[in-house]
Amino acid sequence: MSLRKQATAGMVWTFAQQFGNQIIGFIISMVLARLLMPEEFGLIGMIAVFVSVGKVLVDSGLTQSLIRTKDPDQGDFSTVFYFNLVTSILIYGIIYFSAPLIASFYEQNILTNIIRLYCIIFIIDAFSTVQRTRMTKRLDFKTQTIVSIPSTILGGVVGLSMAYSGYGVWSLVWSNISSSFLSSIQFWIYSKWTPDLKFSAQKFKDHFNFGYKLMFSSLLEKVFSNIYLIVIGKYFSAGQVGFYTRAETMKQLPVRNISSALGKVTYPLFASIQDDNVRLKRVYKQLMQIVVFVIAPTLIFLAILAEPIFVFLFTEKWLPAVPFFQILCITGILYPIHSYNLNVLKVKGRSDLVLKLSVYKKILTVIGIVIGIQFGIFGLLYAQIILSFLVFFINAYYTEKFINYPAFEQIKDIVPIILLALIGGAAVYGLDQFIIDQTNFIRITLGILLGTLTYLVFSYLIKLDGLVKLVELIRKRN
Fold first, then answer.
1. Contact 27, 153 (CB under 8 A)
2. What sign does the dihedral 42-46-47-52 (CA atoms) show?
């Protein structure tokens, strides 16, 4: 199969995986949000940073090194497998004994037992990380989709059953554990790969020398992507954490899933053409325009219709999350571009620069939090908007150096898309004000239909690049 066909097929299956999981997960989450209180979601939000950090430490960037390695052998895969497994046990032990300190920090005693149970996921996931990586390297996203969707469904069934039975926050904990356990089992079955009983110190050294920089970069990324949950959990209430978590989750539904789906394909795709800068720039530009073409109108329409959406999906008890969500939608438009700019550095083997940029960005984040918190929780949110624009220019600096695609050229390529999305958003807002007395379902449905139609018509009339590239991609797939 040609590289183009592999990439296209991979993109289709990763979208199926991401959106299949998220549609199912979203439905489950919607029902759970009706059964549980915001404070219970807030408790899980408080430990998100520790879960994220633990997963990064377990992997240590070695799977990224496997993907980048042109011809890894059984020794490479086995070495990484055993490292991940042993590390997962060590990290779980550290988290287990640190749980009371974390609970004390938030002044929530129940967190001790939640952390000790929830973080068993580290060990469960470590058993299948290499199997998943082998599939990603082969662009076998079809099998990953077949694995992930049943796992999500089972985890959801467990969570809903426990929530109906009155288990509260524990329904969220067991839902995630069940999903990870089934996923790990299936990866072993479908991958048909098992490790040899050997560990190569030299191979470990080779992979770790590349991966540890990505590990530190990812650690910074995970800590600082969850730092708002830490700050809100410390200085505000568990309920506020719950509202913020719900808003962030809603924003990430389109953002992270589209960009993550493309990211799974783009990293190995970029790696395969890493020595052809002209081609790398062309592919990067096309993917960026396609993803922004989809994400920009989606976030703008959702932000405008946030109030009826939250009431319709989650009931009025979640209304305080609406302004959080509307502000976060602004930051979401640039999210995938941040990721793709960093992917260019990864495939060029410059994980040191990924780490360097992460340090600079985190310093800015700390400054933004220190200033923003002076104005309360909304000060923290508006600080994120400013930081998102600053981070874009920081990430794009080396993209210009390596593939001659500077920040202002990237802006020029996406501004027309965003402007047309705003025109569609204006149509949505005007209609919603006119039919504001109608039911939430009617407001949402008519608003999205009008906004989408307006956006597509104007995009077609001016032959917008994002639409043209998307149509070409669909036609080539067919």
1. no
2. positive
Mean pLDDT of the 137-144 span: 74
Taking the C-alpha atoms of residue 348 and residue 37, their distance in angstroms, rounded to an integer, is: 46
In whole angstroms, give the CA distance from residue 61 to residue 217. Answer: 9
Q: For the chain, which residues make up each domain, given as ranges?
A: 1-232, 236-478
The one-letter code for the residue type at 362 is K
Q: State how far the Cα of 141 lies from the Cα of 130, in Å rounded to an integer.
A: 14
Max intra-chain CA distance, the chain: 69
C-alpha distances out from residue 305 to 331, 441, 444, Å: 17, 11, 6
Q: Round to whole Å and give the CA distance between 66 and 73.
A: 10
- The 3-class secondary structure across the chain, one letter per residue, is CCHHHHHHHHHHHHHHHHHHHHHHHHHHHHHHHHHCCHHHHHHHHHCHHHHHHHHHHHHCCHHHHHHHCCCCCHHHHHHHHHHHHHHHHHHHHHHHHHHHHHHHHHCCCCHHHHHHHHCCHHHHHHCCHHHHHHHHHCCCHHHHHHHHHHHHHHHHHHHHHHHHCCCCHHHHHHHHHHHHHHHHHHHHHHHCCCCCCCCCHHHHHHHHHHHHHHHHHHHHHHHHHCHHHHHHHHHCCHHHHHHHHHHHHHHHHHHHHHHHHHHHHHHHHHHHCCCCHHHHHHHHHHHHHHHHHHHHHHHHHHHHCHHHHHHHHHCHHHHHHHHHHHHHHHHHCCHHHHHHHHHHHHHCCCHHHHHHHHHHHHHHHHHHHHHHHHHCHHHHHHHHHHHHHHHHHHHHHHHHHHHCCCHHHHHHHHHHHHHHHHHHHHHHHHHHHHCCCCCHHHHHHHHHHHHHHHHHHHHHHCCCHHHHHHHHHHHHHC
**d(C-alpha 435, C-alpha 80), whole Å:** 58
CA-CA distance, 292 to 313, in Å (whole number)? 26
CA distance 211 to 359: 17
Q: What is the per-residue pLDDT across 83-98, written as a single tens digit (0 to 9) for each?
A: 888 889 999 999 999 9
Confirm if 242 and 40 have CB atoms less than 8 A apart: yes
Position of tokens 């200033």? 371
pTM of the model: 0.74
Segment 251-272, tens digit of pLDDT:
887 776 666 655 555 555 565 5
Cβ neighbors of 330 (< 8 A, separation 6 or more) are 299, 303, 385, 388
Residue 432 has pLDDT above 90, yes or no: yes
Cβ atoms of residues 336 and 260 within 8 Å:
no
Any idea of the CA torsion for 251, 257, 259, 265, to the nearest 10 degrees?
A: 180
